[in-house]
């Protein structure tokens, strides 16, 4: 089915029958995108995804598909490095739409928006609160108009115990981590002394989870960012992250989106920190792996 849908859409498609052949074809063809089934002979899709992501010198979009479509299965696929996850059977229009989003993201990277070897990024212009709110409203209205996905994240440094560094001293490091994991089209704004609000246009549940997990994982590593020189020799820190989405049955306005992300963050913080809470049809809470 996938071959017929993508060929009709104008893509050149090369097929593999097992995980080993995927790796061989990747070395020979260097495709713009890889679509993997979780269950494949010889080497499973999750392991193939990890290998491909390790091999790729720049951003290689990977779409994982499977009949295993539970939240846990999707999370496992994304943790392997996949950039999106689609349950089977899938709608042909949705398959094309998701591939279009991944290829647009790849194009952003290839234009210097985070591709490996591009050097430091230009500093993002910090918007005044009124301008940021106006941009938020524009993105929400665009998502409503075109039925595009929109993800909202709140990321905060967790308060440590006695002797721990104050959260306010760690937010510059957190800001650097966030900037290294978002695109130019994404919106980032500091909310308080502990954290930031992120708006990710054209981003489904899996893509938002990927960004959240990368930020949480990098925060736990030793701080090496120039803006955190005072803590350069210390260990990492933990963050709590709340995520909300549009479209969602509980999100009818921008304020709903913001209220839900606040509720998701609060739930993550109540679980003693270091958690990600994704509010879709219900709050889904988990601890990201290293």
UniProtKB/TrEMBL annotation:
Gene3D superfamilies: 3.30.70.270, 3.40.50.2300, 6.10.250.690. Residues 1-103 form the Response regulatory domain. GO terms for molecular function: phosphorelay response regulator activity; transcription cis-regulatory region binding. The modification 4-aspartylphosphate is found at residue 37. The keyword Protein biosynthesis does not apply. InterPro entries: CheY-like_superfamily, GGDEF_dom, Nucleotide_cyclase, Rev_trsase/Diguanyl_cyclase, Sig_transdc_resp-reg_receiver, WalR-like. Pfam families: GGDEF (PF00990), Response_reg (PF00072). Transmembrane segments: none annotated. NCBIfam families: GGDEF (TIGR00254). This is Response regulator receiver modulated diguanylate cyclase.
